[in-house]
Design brief:
- Helices cover about 30% and strands about 20% of the residues.
- It is α+β, with helices and mostly antiparallel strands.
- It has 2 domains: about 180 residues, 2-Layer Sandwich (Nucleotidyltransferase, domain 5); about 60 residues, no CATH class.
- The strands form 5 sheets. Strands 7-6-5-8-9 form a 5-stranded mixed beta sheet, sandwiched between helices.
- Helix 7 packs antiparallel against helix 8.
- The N and C termini lie far apart (about 75 Å).
Length: about 325
């Protein structure tokens, strides 16, 4: 019941029709009389809106750091697997993509097959073509278990994979560091982080991918898989960039006219794929190139189609130690 603080207790004759209150055998005549309004009513304190108290989430700045901007002591392969379920003894392995991050995204290698043994052997052959490598992904334990159990099932030796160093960007986002720190914070989904950092949602939901599989159409799943690998590699590179002890500076978001002119001569720009709308870095020296996600052709863009010019400090290229990264 709401309290009324403008009442006072007083004694006097019992009003007609009123009944005395019996308190421990004693009858008490009591009535409540409203108090006079105070001379001045204290102002009601308005509660500020949450938007004026709690800052809104940071707006995505779409960082443009690539492997050119970090020091790599080894070949790093970003990869992701797609399956028809969660448990290895219940699902089928369908798709896997691999991107050595010191190569263009368009050279990402994708394996897809309804025949699980076929994809297992092709992936093994690809990985065995390297001299050495480390691997990175998001929730890598799922992908490691997927591949290692299939290598077991079909008796395919892949010694470099089984002895590789594995990085997990989900673990990094849970702790904020690659070093060991206990954390029970939520890791967030890959899409949570990519939308926050790059403002770029996934091209297909998992429901749309499974709807395609039921119609024998693997294309949505392949496109989603390649998008995952591309952005997983991007955030791994970004996490390594903040460890750099080099005076190279962060890529500029708004280059000067002189910088833009020089960059167009060399030149890299960001354009959207005309089909899947994924952002691609386009080298202007090329007459055309393909989208790294859906493999659609991107013709040489005009200046009006540039979403952003990319300007990076010069970093001398390092000689690669791997045997090949050519797509099958």
């Amino acid at each position: 019941m709401a309290e009324n603080t403008n009442l006072k207790l007083s004694s006097g004759p019992l009003p007609a029709g009123a009944t005395p209150m019996n308190v421990a055998g004693t009858l008490i005549n009591m009535k409540l009389v409203p108090l006079a309004a105070p001379a001045t009513t204290p102002p009601i304190q308005s509660v500020p809106s949450s938007s004026s108290v709690v800052p809104l989430p940071t707006k995505a700045v779409q960082p443009k750091i690539t492997a050119e901007d970090i020091s790599l002591d080894e070949v790093i392969i970003c990869w992701d697997c797609e399956t028809s379920g969660v448990n290895p003894w219940e699902y089928q392995w369908l798709v896997a993509s691999f991107w050595p991050i010191d190569t263009p995204k368009a050279d990402m290698v994708t394996f897809a097959s309804w025949d699980e043994e076929e994809i297992t052997r092709e992936v093994a052959e690809y990985l065995n073509s390297f001299d050495s490598f480390a691997m990175t992904g998001f929730n890598t334990a799922f992908d490691i278990r997927c591949m290692s159990t299939r290598f077991m099932m079909y008796q395919v030796p892949v010694p470099l994979f089984m002895s590789s160093t594995f990085y997990d960007t989900r673990d990094f986002f849970k702790k904020g560091t690659w070093k060991y720190v206990f954390s029970d914070q939520a890791s967030g989904s890959l899409e949570d982080w990519i939308v926050w950092l790059y403002d770029e949602p996934k091209p297909y939901t998992i429901e749309e991918c499974f709807a395609g599989l039921r119609e024998d159409n693997m294309e949505p799943l392949i496109i989603r898989n390649r998008w995952d690998v591309g952005v997983e590699g991007d955030v791994f590179i970004l996490s390594k960039y903040i460890e750099e002890d080099l005076e190279r500076g962060v890529s500029q978001m708004k280059p000067t006219i002189m910088q833009r002119t020089e960059e167009e001569k060399e030149g890299n720009v960001v354009v959207a794929c005309p089909v899947c709308k994924t952002l691609n870095e386009y080298e202007l020296k090329n007459a055309s190139q393909i989208c790294y996600v859906c493999a659609s052709k991107i013709v040489r863009p005009t200046s009006k189609e540039y979403l952003e010019e990319i300007v990076r400090p010069f970093v001398a290229p390092k000689e690669s130690t791997k045997k090949t990264t050519a797509a099958k």
